[in-house]
Amino acid sequence: MEIIFLGTSSGVPTKDRNVSAVALKESSGKKWYLIDCGEGTQHQLLHCQLSMKNLNGIFITHVHGDHCYGLPGLLATIGMNGRTEPLKVFAPQGIKQWIEATRELTQWYLPYELEFISTETVNNYELSQFSISTTKLSHPVASYAYSFTQRGLELKLDTQKLIQNNIPSGPIWGQLRKEKQVTFEGEILQQKDFIKDDIKPQKIVIAGDNDDPSLLKEQCLNAQVLIHESTYDKSLATKAKKVGHSYAELVASFAQQVNIKNLVLTHFSARFQSNEPSNDSGHDQKNSINILLDEAKAVFSNQIYLAKDFQRYKLEKSGELILIEGK
Length: 327
Description:
Elements: E1 2-7, E2 21-25, E3 32-35, H1 41-45, E4 55-59, H2 71-80, E5 87-91, H3 93-105, E6 114-118, E7 124-127, E8 130-136, E9 144-150, H4 159-164, H5 171-178, E10 181-184, E11 187-190, E12 203-207, E13 225-229, H6 237-243, H7 248-257, E14 262-266, H8 290-297, E15 303-306, E16 312-315, E17 321-325
Parallel strand pairs: 3-4, 4-5, 5-6, 12-13, 13-14, 14-15
Antiparallel strand pairs: 1-2, 1-16, 2-3, 7-8, 8-9, 9-12, 10-11, 16-17
């Protein structure tokens, strides 16, 4: 899988960060998915090698504008680019009502069908290479996390164990790859007894706004990557709770508790300035984005990243998340 960050600011854009949007590419092929669509997302896409014709689904975490105000424009552009096949949009019910009202009031024509799937009513869904599940979070409006788990993995047989049990190579091995039970010489063989258990599906959890990371405990089981907002640092913990957001130490402590291998923080308050040197005399090191990184590293011992717009990451089969493009 590949992850491309299209927007990493919260609330409002900054000079070097747009508001929330993340693209997720399948492990093979060209299909990709968009999680959240803040204002300006379609312009961000112009700077990436992502074709709108290969967009296979849109997922909106909640109705706040920095996560969805770019959706009408993007959907219209997709239509003008000639799409005719249906497009699935997973979103809270309010998004559907808003889009339908916008279409009616602006006489907006789409040459393709929008298939809205209400996040409130769907827990598990299979779409192409992914099994998708949802978790309700804690925020002033209903906010959700989506997990994307790789499906359709080819099982690998433990050939040494098969040989030890006098099961000859040939058609019977092929059957065991495909069927849970196989009869061989009058004996029922269980698939689970002859497959390697060291091959685990890739799983990524992408959360919307949330002031209680512990709600993701079950969702994070067997996940290699958690992408979570870190709007503030711990000096603003009281404010964070009041407005339904998280801070770096809170998220990192949770990630350490559930032993997530890779944590990516995003959705940063505009008060936090980039790490690059600035000629602006008003540049305040007290508000450097490094504060969040240092705070998180103090309680989290695995791989951690602070997301930046246009960064591209690859999740390896080993579970390691690697930055392959962007600083």
